[in-house]
Amino acid sequence: xxxxxxxxxxxxxxxxxxxxxxxxxxxxxxxxxxxxxxxxxxxxxxxxxxxxxxxxxxxxxxxxxxxxxxxxxxxxxxxxxxxxxxxxxxxxxxxxxxxxxxxxxxxxxxxxxxxxxxxxxxxxxxxxxxxxxxxxxxxxxxxxxxxxxxxxxxxxxxxxxxxxxxxxxxxxxxxxxxxxxxxxx
Length: 185
Fold this sequence. Notes:
Blueprint: H1 2-31, E1 32-36, E2 51-55, E3 68-71, E4 81-87, E5 92-95, E6 99-102, E7 105-108, E8 122-125, E9 130-134, H2 144-147, E10 158-159, E11 163-172, E12 178-179
Antiparallel strand pairs: 1-2, 2-11, 3-4, 3-11, 4-9, 5-6, 5-8, 6-7, 9-10, 11-12
């Protein structure tokens, strides 16, 4: 009698744990995603091979300067980029043939000289639901500074709909494991 009672309790516990596990798995799949950082464009914050957890379903209002995001460009099927947001909707962008100035910070474009024939300084405002992004390692980053030169893009910023998520947790390497507090600009 005691054996049947224990077996019944174990079955009930197994069913409850399975249900909780299923619900937890469903919640995590809906709200989080694992991603691998590729390339050195975000060094020293992130290195190639770092494994991070992205918070998905991020509302536009929660994205801010300094957030590190993972996104896919509309022209790129599978390639994912990891970059830092340095310009949010409403931010003024100033361009010339030698620099781009976003929100008071100037980025050198001397490596692109001659590709953009700008006689005067051009000004634009980052549109709603769009973001200007750069890598922390400016010398090795393909980012918003370059996008204007790519004929398939034709714009400096990325759209909100291209964003997969915001980096919120580092899984690997083990000495960096933990919630990521991003350095704000």
